[in-house]
């Protein structure tokens, strides 16, 4: 059988032009985002025989004789490799927290994201293009230049307390992982969970970090009232592959341990095999489902690789760096799943693809979940328990019946007061500042 030649010349998108991988980062470069009007590219202008840039070449003295042979001395290259990009976090004050959508293929219509960007560095993340709205690159900037919505809890409290608000399950983690590494210090997600428990509001969580087990006290209390489901995203059980795909996410075994801890505490857990990438992790689907079921998961789902906007270029560069031997094979299979394109934005087909290979994945998933007993029932979250937050119009001055778990702290680090009246407006802010000062720490949100 004749072989198809997928070779191509060196240039953009080829292994010969691929940049070097960065330790601990998913993206290999900062790609130009779609709102950027100019671009800067480093080139060798040929002035340096050694390949050094022009500013490393000594200039010719003014008194140099025209008849003397022209010799341009070259300075020794004392430069060092550029330092690895460090993670920086900028605080912002959000005007609102609730983000609504009417997408027919998304199982929730309201979402909350306490952070912008994600330090996990998953190269395939469909949320990377959202960083373009900040003027940042969806590449390395997405995983190094993070934004924390410092007033997340107070902003959400205000929205939940608005007249006419009708509760529906809020998803935490649709465009960023709420348990990414910076959550250890910022504790914004824990603050949101405290608010959800106080108001008896239903929610779902999507994460790929074992840090979610830190909040077992709150999650277990929510689960007792049928208010929460946690979905753990597991793309592979191979630790080496995981370090390449999602370098700063929790190791696969830690995610399974978190699933086990959550289910032991009575928290319903599902697993997401997402995304399925042809010839990278597609052979692991059944194994992931089997280990997740053994750890206690009750639900499962999957999606195939999506490459919207700048993610397409980022993923191609990543393939050429880490898997140059199969890069074109992977991309051609993606095109098979997407009607000949690298990305399909259409509702109904964007999540699981079309064609014979999509049908094969669908059949494999169905057989595996049926054998393992997954997805036999769906937990209906209870929206009838909702209580308007204390301090909302119509409830000002009313004492909250929410009791913080013993030893728990609000996301600011200040102990959460039990059964304490919450005042609104400037007076409420002043009272909170006085309380925080008495505790020896000003509130992060004030």
TrEMBL record:
- The annotated regions of Low complexity compositional bias extend over 9-24
The record's listing under InterPro entries reads:
Elp3/MiaA/NifB-like_rSAM, MJ0683-like, rSAM, rSAM_sf
Keywords per UniProt: Iron, Iron-sulfur, Metal-binding
- Chain segments carrying region Disordered: 1-24
Please list every transmembrane segment annotated in the UniProt record, as residue ranges.
Answer: none
Q: Where is the Elp3/MiaA/NifB-like radical SAM core domain?
A: 108-336
SUPFAM superfamilies the UniProt entry points to: Radical SAM enzymes
**What protein name does the entry list?**
PA0069 family radical SAM protein
Native species: Achromobacter veterisilvae
Question: What is the taxonomic lineage of the source species?
Answer: Bacteria, Pseudomonadati, Pseudomonadota, Betaproteobacteria, Burkholderiales
